[in-house]
Amino acid sequence: MAVQFSDKSGNQMKAGDTLTLTLPSELKGYSGTIPLNNDAGINFGTCQIKTTNVVCTFSDTVEKLKNIRGNFYFQVKAIDVAQGQTVTTETNLGTQLEKKTVTIIGPTGGGGGGSSPFSYKTGSIQPENTNEVQWVLNANTSKQNVDSDIVLVDTLQEGQTLNQDSLRIGGFAAPMTPQEFQAQGYGTVTFIGDNGFKAIINKDKANGLTFVFQYKANITDSGKKLEAFYNNYTVDYKVTGEEQVSKSDSVSVKNINQGGGAQGDLPPKGTLRIVKHIAGDETKIIPNVSFNLYTESGQQIGSKYTTDQQGMVEVPNLDPGNYYVQEIAGPNYLDFDPQVKVPFTIDANADKGVKLAIPNKVKMTSVSGTKTWNDNNATDRPSSIQVELLQNGNSIKTQEVTAVNSWNYTFADLPAYDNDGNAYTYTVKEQPVAGYKSEVNGYNITNTKDAKTSVSGTKTWNDNNATDRPSTIKVDLLQNGNVIQTKGVTAANSWNYTFADLAQYDMNGVAYTYTVKEQLVAGYKSEVNGYNITNTKVAKMTVEGTKKWKDGNATDRPSSIQVDLLQNGNVIQTQEVTAANDWKYTFTNVESYDVNGSAYTYTVKERPVAGYKSEINGYDITNTKVGETKVEGTKTWKDGNATNRPTTIKVDLLQNGQVVATQEVSKATGWKYEFKDLAAYDAEGNAYKYEVKEQPVDGYKTEVNGYDITNTKDAKTSVSGTKTWNDNNATDRPSSIQVDLLQNGNVIQTQEVTAANGWNYTFVDLAQYDANGVAYTYTVKEKPVAGYKSELNGYNITNTKVAKMTVEGTKTWKDGNASDRPTMIKVDLLQNGNVIKTQDVLAVIGWKYIFADLEAYDANGVAYQYEVKEHLVAGYKSEISGYDITNTKVGQTKVEGTKTWKDGNATNRPTTIKVDLLQNGKVIYTKEVSAAGEWKYAFTDLAAYDAEGNAYKYEVKEQPVDGYKSEVHGYDITNTKVAQTKVEGTKTWKDGNTKSRPTAVKVDLLQSGKVIDTKEVSAAGEWKYAFTDLAAYDAEGNAYKYEVKEQPVDGYKSEVNGYDITNTKVAQTTVEGTKTWKDGNATDRPEMIKVDFLQNGKVVDTKEVTAATNWKYTFEKLQAYDANGVAYKYEVKEQPVAGYKPEVKGYDITNTKVAKLTVEGTKTWNDNNATITTQQIQKSRTNQM
Questions:
Q1: Counting C-beta atoms within 10 Å of the first and last residue's C-beta, which end of the chain has fewer, N or C?
Q2: 542 closest CA partner among 615, 604, 469, 635
Q3: % helix / strand / coil in the chain, to the nearest 5?
Q4: pLDDT at residue 114, as a whole number
């Protein structure tokens, strides 16, 4: 069976594709493998022949070629059909082809071979195993009796080796091995090398039995190339009653003949275009990325390939097949794996190349940080915080951070670069946490407790409103034990004080401990309860006195007396006073004040002493019998230790109003004095009245208390000042102000001050010292003046104009909501032309801004001039109205493009075209474009935006050009040649009107080499066809090349001339034959004969035929049809051989020995004189001979 195949048009075959043919049950295929190679030995696949089917599996060669086609042939074995019987079946071998009829004519089965009445041999190759020949040698087939042993010698010819293990002998009994044959006495079998054996059948066992020798011969590698396998054998035997016979014969079995081949056309080379871009954004191309290119097997092609500034690189002239690329280098911001293989395939049909888009991700990074709390583990610390991640200043993510993850956070999988390769700057920002101040160091965040507090308290006096209570005290504020502030506290503020705006926590978030402590106040004990302070009058005192006796040291003076100490009239102690202590007594460590600070009154009282009159002076006790007295006192100064205090004074003693003595008193005497030895009584027994008087001291006022003298400083002073206005002569300046005079912090006078007296004032006749001689502190204070801040310098007052104001405005955009509008702008606040503040203005707050709490006036009371100014915003014009800012989109643009012609450089292309420029759909300019300007055009200096900031939409449109289709891409214009054509042709047959001509054929229309349409052509349409309405030009304006190609027609060769197709009947055939000699192996048989081969009656070849080829001959690769498709008539004819008569049957020639002889005899007729011709007699004789 011969099979032709080809790939289906437009279908690319792949490695592993199969072609399967299924044999009908009446036929069995001879198993084998057929390689499908082309003339160069390149393998296209293999066909596996099995008994029931044929499976051809194609290799990867088919993937690299187009128009795959080929053929193969193989042999089949028919089922056994008896002599005279015929079996018919129809099959299309399991395909969709038209079924054909197969006829099997009996007899079938068996092999060739000679036969004799006594022995014959057959051979065969079975479909299941074509690597061996099965041989059968039959002996004594007529089951005769023999008088001698039967001797058989079997010899295999070339290409075979005997499989000794397969030899079995049967026929007379169940098949047995040679060993069993010998053991049972039937004879012997001896192997002759690996290609024969000799068998002797014992005569006494051979009578009446048939012996069948069956065995297998393995076909060698060289044998597979032979046309046939031969087996020679001889048999020697003697049938009872007959002569001894020695017979030789040769039997052949044709080898299984199968083969095939395939071929294909090389496809055009392909081009690889690598396009490198950022993953997810094909507009972000990546230049300077390098690749290596490899075949699928790993062979590198060329050196490295690097993308250009457009992110592309092309590799031309690649054979169809599988490839891969590996990225080996690129810009630093790319993340790529050089081990990754990117596969692609150059398809045999991919005329325009392969675009391989390879995306890259930018390198990733992460941001990690730790939250630290400086708050001494505060109980009000929040359970979580929110940390914002900012990319180039813009918040992109927010993460909750808690103690569960140890206050750590991580923002992972962050792009380290933007799509242009610019490194992102990542920062973190904590969303505000109430009561904490946040500090960021790198990505670590520290929160420190941040709160203000105050300390307030009240001063309470337990001193019974003592006159010597100080007018002011000082209270220290201690922070963790350290004094940080001091405040003066006076009665003016009801002895209350406050320390305000105090930090509640230290830098580690630990709460400060605040305490207060009063600076020492003489004579008072200070107690602090919380922040309240109580001062209690305290002092220790001594009550001491002397017992004086005015008795002239009378002998009856008692040896001791008892003196009681009374506290507020109550006896609290008693002391015995004796001469042993000089009649002195002392009560020590006595409290001067009670718990409320009231001074105790201490007195002494002598217990009665008989005969004496007791007199107590202070704490001194005088007992006068009769006697004298004394006067003593102390000088006290109330002058604040004035530096001009005199060093001495003089004190006069007056007795009943008359100066009787004078004494000088100084610091040296402790400012004490004493007048003694004074008569206590006059002659009348009346006590003298003694007094003291100080002689005048300048600057002091004298007061005498008993015999004690107190000098108090005594002077007058005045307070004067000027009022100054810093208000740039404001029209709303008041006409007068009120100035308070404060004495030790207390207002004692108020004076109205006006411009009439030049804004000057004076407070006169002021006491310079208080009752204790301490100098008064005089201060002034202006009563508040609305809109002014008052400052004191001594007694001069300066009023400065003060006020707060707010500057606020709105940002308006005139840009048609442009996508490139910034999300934030910066607005500067200018004070008298100098920037003092800058504010970010955002869309999220409605593009509004406020500068609050601004000073309205400078230090001289002059009003500040405030303005706003926007930081430059690229592409916008900024206008300010008051404090409102309007940004209008501004800019210029241009429109430029190129005119491209897709017309294969057509000769009728116009020399110029006209291009209109449309602004928002209206033509505003027209340009003439020509080859002189390389078909380029540009409209320049175009306004990009209208007065409202809306972007103009610019378009270009070409004025119509006949014969072209215009397409606009952006601002580039492409004109493509457009037209239609048709293809029509006629089918002609050169086949002698053969009956096997198909009723229809299929014609493919190829457009530039690719099948785009197919038509069925038949006799009904007079074998004509037409493809109409065909595009004359491709998308590039190049004229299509149209061709026609007939789909293969078995047995025909197709030729195309223009669009006409001629099919000529073609085929190859083989003529083979055998020379048979009927000459009884005559010794004069020639060694060689010549056989002429005739084509249409003319000798076209001659072959010599000899016994060396077993008298066989073959004429191969013969054309079955002539140029007009008419079948050639082939014949063979033997050149004459003397003594022989040749007979040709088909292509087999039989030579029969011929000669003349004489036959004599007498004919007797028993036919009632019937008539008979001489010719009939001669024929009868010939037949008998």
A1: C
A2: 604
A3: 5, 60, 35
A4: 41
Which pLDDT belongs to residue 1185?
30
Which amino acid is residue 147, in one-letter code?
Answer: D
Secondary structure class of 408 (helix, strand, coil)? strand
Instruction: Write the burial class of residue 436 (CB in 10 Å: 0-12 exposed, 13-18 middle, 19+ buried).
Output: buried
Residue 1074 neighbours by CB under 8 Å, 6+ apart: 1110, 1111, 1112, 1113, 1148, 1149
Around 406, how many Cα atoms within 13 Å sit in the side-chain half-sphere? 6
Query: Identity (one letter) of the amino acid at 680?
Result: A
pLDDT for 267: 67
Class of the domain covering 896-977? mainly beta
Cβ 959 vs Cβ 916: under 8 Å: yes
Q: How far apart are the first and last CA of the chain?
A: 43
The span from the CA of 248 to the CA of 234, in Å, is 4
User: Nearest to residue 140, comparing CAs of 247, 225, 231, 41?
Assistant: 247
Q: Is 1177 helix (H, G, I), strand (E, B) or coil?
A: helix
Pick the CATH number of 452-467+475-537 from 2.60.40.1140, 2.60.40.1640, 3.30.300.10, 1.10.10.10: 2.60.40.1140
pLDDT tens, 846-880?
A: 999 999 999 989 888 898 999 999 999 988 999 99
CATH code at 980-1064: 2.60.40.1140
Joined together, the tokens standing for residue 1112 give: 């066989």
* Third-level CATH fold of 627-695: Immunoglobulin-like (2.60.40)
For 205-268, what is the HEC assignment? HHCCCCEEEEEEEEECCCHHHCCEEEEEEEEEEEECCCCEEEEEEEEEEECCCCEEEEEEECCC
DSSP characters over 1128-1145 = PPEEEEEPP-TTEEEEEE
CATH number of 804-889: 2.60.40.1140
- pLDDT of residue 1069 exceeding 90, the answer is no
| Distance from C-alpha of 906 to C-alpha of 1032, rounded to nearest angstrom | 13
pLDDT at 1180 over 60: no
What phi and psi values does residue 630 have, to the nearest 5 degrees? -150, 160
Q: Could you report the per-residue pLDDT of 403-428, keeping only the tens digit for each?
A: 999 999 999 989 888 878 889 999 99
Q: Are 925 and 917 in contact (CB under 8 A)?
A: yes
Query: Residue 494: which pLDDT band, with cuts at 50, 70 and 90?
Result: very high
The residues, any chain, with a CB within 8 Å of residue 247's CB and separated by 6 or more, are 116, 118, 119, 234, 235, 236
Q: How far is CA 772 from the centre of its chain?
A: 89
Tokens of 360: 């890259």
Selection from 483, 481, 461, 636 nearest residue 538 by Cα: 461
Q: Does the structure show a pLDDT above 70 at 111? A: no
1068-1153 fold: Immunoglobulin-like (2.60.40)
Q: According to the model, what pLDDT value does residue 1182 have? A: 35
Indicate if the pLDDT at residue 555 is higher than 90.
no
- Residue 505 sits at φ, ψ, to 5 deg, of -130, 155
